[in-house]
Amino acid sequence: MNIITAKDISKNFNKRKFSWRNFSFSEEENIAVSNLSLEINEGEFVGFLGPNGAGKTTFLKILSGIIFPTSGEARVLGYVPWEKNHDFLRQIAIVMGQKNQLWWDLPAIDSYKLLEEVYDIKKTRFKQNLDGMVSLLNMEKLLPKRLRDMSLGERMKCELVACLLHDPKVIFLDEPTIGLDVVSAQNIRNFLKEINKERGCTIILTSHYMADIEALCPRIIIINHGKKIYDGSISKLKEEYSPEKRIEIFLNSVEEKTKFAHINTKNKRFFGNKGIITVSKAELGTVAKEVFDSFKIENISISDPEIEETISKIFLQKIPR
Amino acid sequence: MINVIKKFIRINIIIFRNSYIRDSKLVGWISVNILSQLFDIAVSLLLFTVIFQNTKSIAGWNFYQVLFLYAFIKFIGSLHSAWTRSGIKDFSNDLVRMGEYDFYATKPYDPMVLVTLKRPKIYTFITVLFEIGLLVYSATHSGMEIGFSNIFWFFILTLLALVLFYFLEILTVVPAFWTTKIWALTDLMNRAIQFAKYPTAIFPSALRISLSTLFPILVVSYFPAKTLFYPPEFKYIIYMFLITIMFGFITKGIWKLGEKRYGSASS
User: Which residues sit opposite A28 in a β-bridge?
Assistant: First the structure.
């Protein structure tokens, strides 16, 4: 069942500037989102990808009702988000990795109590949710600590708990792992996976970290210049945009480097002590045979291209759609 | 309606409790603030004493009545300062500019109320207590006959004055939705409050009408005070009801328009 539908959503930000030279106003138009349409089913975990300024966060803010679109239609849980119906707002949550909603000078637990009241959460449910998440995130010691005394990772844990106390059906996460170390980011990812599985809520995630997207999102939507340029699974993306294989050979000596230079294929390059060949699936058999004949098997690996590589090609529009 | 009020009270209790937890660590800052407020009251008292050494009354109001008027507008201002002004200031300076209004816009509670309740300064209520003392002192020494109906209508109009003052304060910052940051209008309002310390009859009629209709700051102080000291006049009471409701609609309407204009901030 579609829980989110958006049709031809556009958002332009207009800036009026006064020019003393012409003594007149001029309007500068910045298109943040352009005719974006999509449908998201209940329980899906969808990743939004795009370079800085692509329009991901703007689109997320439109779907959560924070900002009004310039044109287009959207329904989230059957509501028009920007009408800000309280029943709708009670069923959604938004977390922004670069902003805090909790009171800076207070322990997180005090902010949670305010949220309990604002969202009309029943006392037993509040306690049950809080206890469950505190134990899942191992943050018993954080609750009485003031937010300003916490590390970035600890703060993000507290923010996530705050957004989930009222059992939202749709969760918008805008770069929740930004600035976190590897371990903290992994903890957050595990937590989100667990929540999505356990509660069946729909989660929309924007992130610049491919590790987040690969670990969590079976479906990704790529946006660039405000337009949707891909919607599907990561594996399909690789198939569609990077149908090649990548052969990596660890080169131990000058002799091996010379051998590598003589392999009969076009797309090869050195990367330190590594020789990298990108080869189409049709060519793979021939090239792989030559490689296995020339180098020790333990020094060879064959894999799909890195997802970052594929996506950066799309961002840079090297791949025509 | 009762549920709405109950929820409002419960939210306020939590916010005040949180404010107490936060501010109890800032004793020095609180003490300086309270002392400066008390100093301001003392200077104003001195000024009134000097003025009344040269005249017996201002527009028919004696020293204690004018003192009451002064204490009343101070009381309204301090109550707002304790309760909503910091939130209003944060809204005008930071919430729109930094995009932090996002969190208020996504809560199932009136964002205008939630923003203004954001950061009360609970210790300013100590100043409010001094002002209540000054109100009682000046009312009891005014030599006027104050009956039950005066007190009853005075309390009703005080409630309306509080609400009207709140709307006026919001109106001075709501342009932040368009300008991203604004505080100049609130400064202007603080200057206009000076007029509310005196009986309206001393002002030229154009100014009196403007400050009773377009920006009704005189209504906030003079109408309740007049109702306490003189027989309640229903034209004043009805006017105050109507103008408060009207400004409520205007404030809410402009806030909603502003929300449509709100563009948040880049991540």
Answer: A15
